[in-house]
Structure formats: structure tokens, C-alpha cells
Design brief:
The complex is a heterodimer of chains A (521) and B (441). Chain A folds into two domains: 260 residues, PmbA/TldD superfamily (PmbA/TldD fold); 233 residues, no CATH class. Helix content of chain A is 19%, strand content 36%. Chain B has three domains: 89 residues, PmbA/TldD fold (2-Layer Sandwich); 105 residues, PmbA/TldD fold (2-Layer Sandwich); 205 residues, no CATH class. Helix content of chain B is 22%, strand content 37%. In chain B, helix 3 crosses helix 4. The longest helix of chain B is centred in the N-terminal third of the chain and has 17 residues. The termini of chain B are far apart. The chains are: A alpha+beta (521), B alpha+beta (441). The interface between A and B is large, with 108 and 100 residues.
């Protein structure tokens, strides 16, 4: 189940599928510090705090960490790290008028990595006894061949920023405080339109605690909150059925669920569902596509984002492998990958290698500037890591992964952009995407949009796969709007069998070279 | 080891009952795996681990929760179960929540599902490393290789055990072994395109593996045939979907036949039991007893004894997947909520013969993204493959989509190949559909 053997390994994809039935419980050893939340402290406060404060209760202290790193370095590694994780989540589900299911998950484990150049040995354990941890370090080291290198003499806490802005930790939020969020949202959704017949809502909160210690002597802890909420409405009219959804995802606490947000989500899902009674699949073939501001950022994620992850480039298997410094898009196009946006789903105080999350310019005024790096690729290219080393959990080694990928605003009024199109698609709501890293062909699935006819938005369209070639589509970006907008739609990105939370954004953008998977009458 | 997992499951069950649960189902799984990735002449990544997970489903006055944990320290586990019980108590009462009727826990048939390889223990990590290196050599030596940019290969080995207990009288366990070999080749193409071809084979036993040379040759071939690929004209073509890729199409059926989707009115197949939903030639059977099947098992996720069941018989929809909960909500008898192996009716012809008798069509060898709407049956999928003209494949195509409605698609199924894909639980053959909308340029 954990084995990455599928041929999808380089067919990176993005979806809205929530993590499996997940989440849930505070182990006894931690319950005494359930209210403690490192993310509410400033970076400066962290210094002087015992480095392994949160994990000491699991028996993982500084001497043991040093010991594990020494074992991991014993067979030729030039770098090693220990990743400790405790994560709990709770999910509540509302269906047929009741919150009648709860799912929870506790993940506790330690992953140990030994690195030599580009080579990685990785092992993990859920048994946190010193003996099991030492065996795990030895298993990671066993992948490599060479002389022993010393582990760190001392390990010292590293500074890290605070970007999550959590007011109340999720551990302190009772079920009774969450239930009304789901119940109110359901009532409001039914109130939007009498054709709404079913409302289904899932609500997830998560608290992840990580500690990373490495052979350079760095140790850093972080506490990472997350919440997602999904609402799906099913509507009926004259025997026809349609459904549609809205969702939210952020590194925030329960305070994010204001009355306004609850109403907006209910209204959006319900209105999107009934809109589809007037929609049909779009015509088939290549045509101009105006991407609406916001979640159309899925285009960037697939057309360029994955291809700019540095592992694919150091391995020479990305279509962008030899393009740094070259023009790949018009002047109007500047694309960032950003781990620093407060409360954002893609924000990371530190990545899963313990390095601060940064704001990375991928494309500056049309020129390709930087890949997204983890430690291995940064060493390969002789640059600093960009803080993109992320992993699904302690069960997997880190890889270069996106955080929040978006395009800055350009000069054009959105109305002007739509007005310039004689016949095309205005694309608004998406569900998933995928890319072939090497060929550069990518797709993204349009759930809801509109036809543009003679510069005006006309009838709604639905259910069409849009497909293009990344570099070709970027080259042909015609107009960039002045309304760049970040989505907050709870996206999950899959790569090499690992899912991580990401976010994306885009201004209204006119693209060409996209084939619309529609149906011709 | 499985006895140990069963004992652990019973301990958790007892604790949940002690804390007030009326019904409990506990699953404990243990997986040990080694995974090797070899790239361009050296080991790239080796992973090695054992993972143990415990899941508890609780039924308390018709309230329900499901919790999973990897923190199995005795004290932590007690706390975990206590919190799961408290969580469930705070939910709404739902009369449809209960364990399966114990009459569904019947004796298992006396057949060997061949889920483990007796010689498995003899395969060492060093063997895997050597095989992965050999796979690279085989891929590079399989044909013209001057365009090769990179070759990544891998060997994965795993051994899993599962124990499941239900407090109203079920106890079961299952053991599996897995061994897989794969190769992936990236080539330099024009316009800096770098197409990748991959191939894999494996299964429960070493005998499922293909010769290393075959895997390497297939990976290289699949990369080479993409050289120069581009979209062609939008239009209606015959589609021949290769067995390996065809699982993407049958996957679209798997949501709308779920009881949960039917009950939530999100299935285009609602109300279609006993009706024709596909071409007469299509029969799909859910068969949990396929020897070495990748989802073969005597019991399902709820402990109910598995049965062989028709899904579609001569084009007629015969069963939904109904677990205890959604069957109760729909007022129907449960079948099972778990899809096992799908076996398909087969035709007399090979893929090559299907291609040879096609005048103008597209051989679909892979899909890219796309989605399907289970509520309406609409779908749209990216494809790549080869153009067929007068019975021969002539040029590679990519960057195209197919779209339509599932009801229409399955009725357009005109031929099935004789080539079931055995490296997946869904053992579909190659499929031919007439009159499919392709969008390109």
C-alpha cells in the first residue's frame, strides 16, 4: 500500500480528494500539553526551549537524536536527517440531515534518511523504542556504501517563522463547537433553492507536530494546523439530477468558519448545482480559453509547476530541464511558488527538511528563474534550498513539492479579456488535473464554465477535460488580468504516491493552444 | 504473526466494549516492504519499513465512528479507544448503523486463493538491487537507444497481514505477498519534449513476473512510439483501448454502482438494476476467489463472507455494491461494499487483430487526467496513442480528449479482446468502441 510502483509515478496529479478517512486522537503522553501550541509563539520565543520539547514525551531526546544521526551516517552518507511526526485529525460527516459519522486518525512515527549525493536510503518506524529507532537508522544507512562520517557534535534549535495565525489550537475545540458549522451550512444550502435535494458535508481539522534533526546539527520543531471543509449539493429538476460542490482549506483554526464563510460555501455549492440544469458539455476542439481568477491556477500547477520541481530536472526528465534563464512566456507572466502566505493552505513555517518556507520566483516577466528545491537538488545545482522539501508523512522521504503556486496580476481588465474572444470558453470551477513531466502535456478538468460568444458570456458548460502542452500554452498566454486571486479550495497534490496539501491562484488569463474535450452535436 | 494481530484486535475490541460500545469491529494490518529505485547506473533510493495500523469502528446506540492509529503503545491505545468512544457518543443517532447480521459470517469456501509465495523469504534486498540494475541494462539494450535521456527501474517487495474481528462473532485473517518489477525510459524528442514510457509486471507470486528483457523492451517501445506525437483533427473515430489503459474506463463505472452514491442520488445508474446499461457483449463478474487475484479475499471489509457476483451480465446491470449501512438506508439486502476482482467476458481476437480490422481509428494506449460525473454519466478524458489507418498504426497522437456519456459509451462497445490484463484486480481486456468523439485540433 505504501509502495510506489505504479506507472503514475511521473504523471503528477492534483485532486480534491480529501485524505482517506482520517484522523484523530491525542495520545496520553501529549495530553498534558494539548494546549501548548508552538505556532502561537514567535520564533524568538522558541530559542531556549528544549529542542525536543514535544517529542521528549515520546522518549526522543537530544542524545538519542545524535545517536540516530551517527548511525545513519555510518555507511558513506554525506547527510542524514530524522523526521519525527505526530499528527491527529478528526473528520465529521453530515449526510441526510445529521452529523452521523466521525472519523479520526493518529499518525505517529519516525522516518530516518541517509543521503549520499543524489542517493537516498530511507526507513521508518512506528515503534519509538530506542532499539527500534536504532535499527531504523541502520536500515536507512544500509542503502549506501562507504566510510563512516561523524554525526553532529551538538544539535541546536533553528529559528523559524510563524505563519499559521492560529487563535485556538484544534485540540482545544470540542466536537460541540464544530457540529453547528455543519448543521448551519446544511440549512443554508437547502434555503438557497427548492431544487436542492441532498446536502453532504465533511469537516476536517488536523494538528501535525513535526521535529526534524539533521547531521548539520539543526533541529527544528513545528506545529502545523489544517482544516478543510467540503459541501456537495444534489439538485433535482424534472427527473434530472445535477450536483456540485464548494470547499475550503487553510492552515487556520475554527475562527475561520465565520457566518459569512458558512453562508458563502452553502450558497456557492447550491447555486453551482442548479446552474448545471442549463449547462451542457462544450463543443470539442481547440479554442481560446479565458481562465477565471482564482482556482484556474490549476493551469500553472500542471503546465509549469511540476516541471519546475528540481528533482525532475536534475534527472533530466522534465521538459524544463535546460530552460533556466530562457524566455518561456510573454512579459506579463510572473509566477511564484510561495510558502509564506499567512494562514494559507500551502504555507509552511519550515518544510519537512526543517528549512524555512520561502517565496520563490519561478518565472519573472516571462523568463524562467528558479526551480523548486529540496536539499538533494539544491546540493546538485549548488544553490540554497528553496524550502520545497515536503513529504506526505514520516512514511516517505521528502521531495521537491509545490506550496502555493500563483501568477501575479497583469495590466488587463477582466472584461476586456472576455470581450476580446469571439468564440471560446470561460473556465471557472475545476476538480483535478494531471501532467506528463517529460512530454509537457497536461490536463485539467473543467467542472463548470461558460461559453464566450462574440465577447460575451452566454450559456453554462460542464464536464470537459482541457488539455495542452505546458511550454506551448505559456508561450501563447495572450492577456493577463489585473485581478490575481488566490484560491482557498483545499487542493491535494499527488507525486510519487505522496499527497501533500497545496494551494494555487491566477488572475483572469487568456490562453490559447488548449483542446477542449467536449462533444460536437 | 497473524495470531499476534488477532490478539491485538481482540484486546482493542474488549476495551471498546468495556467503555460502552455495543458493537465493535477492529482491523489490524501489518506490512513489511522493501522498495528499490535504480537510476542511470546506480541505486537512487531504497526504502525499507514495517508499518502496523489499527482501526476501530464503533457502534454505540446506533452512533458510529471509525478511527485509525499507528500509535500502538498500550497506554496510548487505551486513550485512543476511550476518545473514539467519546467522539461517537456526541453524534446523531442513526438507526441504519449496526454491524452486519451474523448470518453473513459464513464458512469460507475450501479453495486456495494463492495469496502468498512460499519462496518469498528467500528474496533479499541485494537480489532486488541486482534485478533493478539488470532492468536498466535490459531497457537500454532493447533497441535503438541514442535518444535515451534517463532510465529509472525498480523492484518492490512487500508482505502484508490483516486481522479483522467483529464483536458479534467474526474473526478472519488474510496474508499476501507482492513482488513487482518496473522500468521507465525517457527519450529526447523534438521541441524538447521528453516522452516517457513505462511498463510493470508483478503480483502475489514470483511466477507473475515477466522476463526482465520483456519489461525493458516494453518500456523502451512505449517511449519510442510517442516520438513526434501531436494532436490530430477533431472528429469521430473508432477507439481501440489497450487492456493496460482500459481500466481508466471501467473505473468510471465504479462510483455509480456504489450503494452510497445510489442512495445519495449521485448515480446515473440509480433505478437501473435489471436494465440494459451496456452492449450485449459485456459481462463483468466480481470474483473474490481468483487464484492470485490482487483483491482476492474470503471476507469483505465488514467481515461478510465474499461471494462471486455478476456486476453486468450481457449488458444488464445485476448488482450494486451495498454495504450494511447503505443497504439498510435503501431498504435492500446488503451485497458487499468492497469491490474485489473484476473478470470480464472475452472476445476471440487479439489486440493486433482488432487493430488490423479497423479502417480508421485511434489506439488509446494511455489516459491523461480527465474525470467522469457519476451523477449524469458525462465524462471527458485526455488520451495518447496511435492513429490507425487501414488496419495499421501510422502516427503517434497526444494532447487529445475523448468525451461523451457513459450510457452511450458502454453501448458502443463493439468488441472485447482475448487479452485480460492480469497485473490489476480489474482484469479487463482490450476494448473496441465505435463512433467516439475525439477532440484535437
Amino acid at each position: 500500500m505504501l509502495i510506489t510502483r505504479n506507472t503514475m509515478s511521473r504523471r503528477e496529479f492534483l485532486s480534491l480528494v480529501p485524505r482517506g478517512a482520517v484522523l484523530v486522537s491525542l495520545p496520553a503522553a501529549l495530553s498534558g500539553c494539548g494546549g501548548r501550541n508552538a505556532s502561537t509563539r514567535s520564533a524568538a520565543d522558541l530559542e531556549g526551549v528544549l529542542a525536543t520539547g514535544g517529542f521528549a514525551s515520546f522518549g526522543i531526546d537530544d542524545p538519542l537524536l545524535k545517536d540516530l544521526l551517527t548511525i545513519a551516517m555510518s555507511r558513506g552518507a554525506d547527510f542524514a536527517d530524522v523526521f519525527c511526526q505526530h499528527r491527529l485529525n478528526h473528520m465529521l460527516g453530515l449526510e441526510d440531515g445529521q452529523v452521523n459519522r466521525a472519523y479520526s486518525e493518529v499518525e505517529l512515527g519516525v522516518g530516518i534518511r541517509a543521503v549520499k549525493g543524489d542517493q537516498t536510503g530511507y526507513a521508518f518506524t512506528e515503534d519509538l523504542s530506542a532499539g527500534a529507532l536504532r535499527s531504523t537508522a541502520a536500515a536507512a544507512a544500509a542503502a549506501l556504501d562507504g566510510p563512516s562520517a561523524p554525526g553532529p557534535k551538538v544539535i541546536a534549535p533553528a529559528r523559524r517563522p510563524d505563519r499559521y495565525g492560529l487563535v485556538v489550537p484544534w485540540e482545544a475545540v470540542k466536537v460541540e463547537q464544530k457540529l453547528p458549522i455543519l448543521e448551519t451550512m446544511e440549512k443554508k444550502a437547502f434555503g438557497v433553492d427548492p431544487r436542492i435535494r441532498k446536502v453532504k458535508i465533511s469537516f476536517l481539522d488536523e494538528t501535525g507536530r513535526i521535529l526534524v534533526a539533521d547531521s548539520d546539527g539543526r533541529v527544528v520543531e513545528d506545529v502545523q494546523p489544517m482544516t478543510t471543509c467540503n459541501i456537495t449539493c444534489v439538485a433535482e429538476e424534472n427527473g434530472r439530477r445535477e450536483d456540485n460542490a464548494d470547499r475550503y482549506g487553510a492552515r487556520r483554526g475554527v475562527e475561520a468558519y465565520t457566518e459569512d464563510r458558512i453562508s458563502a460555501m452553502a450558497s456557492s455549492a447550491a447555486k453551482r448545482a442548479v446552474l448545471l440544469f442549463d449547462a451542457s458539455p462544450p463543443p470539442a476542439g481547440e479554442m481560446p480559453v479565458v481562465l477565471a481568477a482564482g482556482e484556474s491556477g490549476i493551469l500553472l500547477h500542471e503546465a509549469i509547476g511540476h516541471g519546475m520541481e528540481a528533482d525532475f530536472n536534475r534527472k533530466k526528465i522534465s521538459i524544463y530541464a535546460d530552460r533556466i534563464g530562457q524566455r518561456i512566456a510573454p512579459d506579463e507572466v510572473t509566477i511564484l511558488d510561495d510558502g509564506t502566505i499567512p494562514g494559507d493552505r500551502g504555507a509552511v513555517n519550515v518544510d519537512d527538511e526543517g528549512r524555512p518556507g520561502r517565496k520563490t520566483v519561478l518565472v519573472e516577466k516571462g523568463i524562467l528563474r528558479s526551480y523548486m528545491h529540496d536539499r538533494i537538488s539544491a546540493a546538485h545545482y549548488g544553490v540554497e534550498t528553496t524550502g520545497n522539501g515536503r513529504r506526505e508523512s514520516y512514511q516517505s522521504p521528502p521531495l521537491p513539492r509545490m506550496r502555493t503556486t500563483y501568477m501575479l496580476s497583469g495590466p488587463h481588465d477582466p472584461e476586456e479579456i472576455i470581450g476580446s474572444v469571439k468564440k471560446g470558453i470561460y473556465a471557472v470551477v475545476f476538480t483535478n488535473g494531471q501532467v506528463q513531466i517529460g512530454a509537457g502535456d497536461f490536463s485539467f478538468y473543467l467542472k463548470t464554465g461558460y461559453l464566450i460568444e462574440d465577447g460575451r458570456i452566454t450559456r453554462p458548460v460542464k464536464d470537459a477535460n482541457l488539455i495542452g502542452n505546458g511550454p506551448k500554452v505559456l508561450e501563447q498566454v495572450k492577456m493577463v488580468g489585473n485581478d490575481s486571486k488566490l484560491d482557498d479550495g483545499g487542493w491535494m497534490c499527488g507525486k510519487d504516491g505522496q499527497m501533500v496539501p497545496v494551494e494555487l491562484g491566477l488572475p483572469t488569463t487568456l490562453a490559447a493552444g488548449i483542446s477542449v474535450g467536449g462533444v460536437n452535436s | 504473526m497473524t495470531n499476534h494481530l488477532l490478539a491485538m484486535a481482540h484486546l482493542a475490541e474488549k476495551e471498546a466494549l468495556r467503555l460502552g460500545a455495543e458493537g465493535v469491529r477492529v482491523g489490524v494490518s501489518r506490512t513489511q516492504f522493501t522498495s528499490i529505485e535504480h537510476r542511470d547506473g546506480k541505486l537512487d533510493r531504497m526504502q525499507d519499513a514495517i508499518t502496523v495500523q489499527l482501526g476501530v469502528a464503533l457502534f454505540i446506540h446506533h452512533r458510529f465512528s471509525l478511527s485509525n492509529t499507528s500509535d500502538l503503545r498500550p497506554e496510548a491505545l487505551r486513550t485512543f479507544i476511550g476518545e473514539s468512544v467519546e467522539l461517537a457518543k456526541r453524534l446523531a443517532e442513526d438507526p441504519h448503523r449496526h454491524l452486519p447480521d451474523p448470518s453473513r459470517y459464513t464458512a469460507f469456501p475450501a479453495v486456495d486463493l494463492e495469496q502468498t509465495d512460499p519462496s518469498f523469504g528467500a528474496i533479499t534486498a541485494l537480489d532486488l538491487r541486482k534485478t533493478a540494475a539488470d532492468l536498466e541494462t535490459a531497457s537500454r539494450d532493447a533497441g535503438p537507444n541514442e535518444r535515451i535521456l534517463s532510465v529509472t527501474t525498480g523492484c518492490d517487495r512487500s508482505q502484508s497481514e490483516l486481522a479483522l474481528v467483529c464483536s458479534n462473532g467474526f474473526e478472519g485473517s488474510n496474508e499476501t505477498t507482492d513482488l513487482w518489477h518496473w522500468a521507465s525510459v525517457t527519450l529526447q524528442d523534438q521541441n524538447d519534449r521528453r516522452p516517457e514510457g513505462s511498463y510493470e509486471a508483478g503480483g502475489r507470486r514470483k511466477t507473475s513476473l515477466l522476463p526482465i528483457g520483456t519489461i525493458g523492451a516494453e518500456a523502451l517501445r512505449r517511449a519510442r512510439i510517442q516520438l513526434g506525437a501531436r494532436p490530430i483533427d477533431t472528429g469521430v473515430y473508432t477507439a481501440i483501448v489497450e487492456n493496460q489503459a482500459a481500466g481508466r474506463l471501467s473505473a468510471m463505472l465504479k462510483d455509480p454502482i456504489q450503494g452510497s452514491m445510489v442512495q445519495q442520488r449521485r448515480s446515473y445508474l440509480e433505478g437501473k438494476l435489471g436494465q440494459k446499461i451496456a452492449s450485449d457483449i459485456l459481462t463483468i463478474t466480481d470474483d473474490p476467489f481468483v487464484p492470485q487475484g490482487l483483491r482476492s479475499c474470503f471476507f469483505d471489509g465488514e467481515g461478510m463472507t465474499n461471494q462471486r457476483r455478476p456486476v453486468i451480465e450481457s449488458g444488464v446491470l445485476k448488482n450494486y455494491y451495498l454495504d450494511t449501512y447503505y443497504a439498510s438506508k435503501l431498504g435492500m439486502e446488503p451485497t458487499t461494499g468492497s469491490i474485489t476482482n473484476w473478470t470480464w467476458s472475452l472476445g476471440p481476437k487479439s489486440l493486433d487483430q482488432l487493430v488490423a480490422e479497423t479502417d480508421r481509428g485511434i489506439l488509446v494506449m494511455d489516459f491523461l487526467g480527465g474525470n467522469s460525473n457519476p451523477t449524469t454519466g458525462d465524462f471527458s478524458l485526455g488520451i495518447q496513442g496511435l492513429l490507425i489507418e487501414k488496419g495499421r498504426t501510422t502516427q503517434p497522437v497526444s494532447g487529445m480528449n475523448i468525451a461523451g456519456s457513459q450510457a452511450d459509451l458502454w453501448n458502443k462497445l463493439a468488441a472485447l479482446g482475448n487479452d485480460p490484463w492480469t497485473y490489476a484486480s480489474d482484469r479487463r481486456p482490450s476494448l473496441r468502441f465505435d463512433g467516439i468523439q475525439f477532440s484535437g485540433v
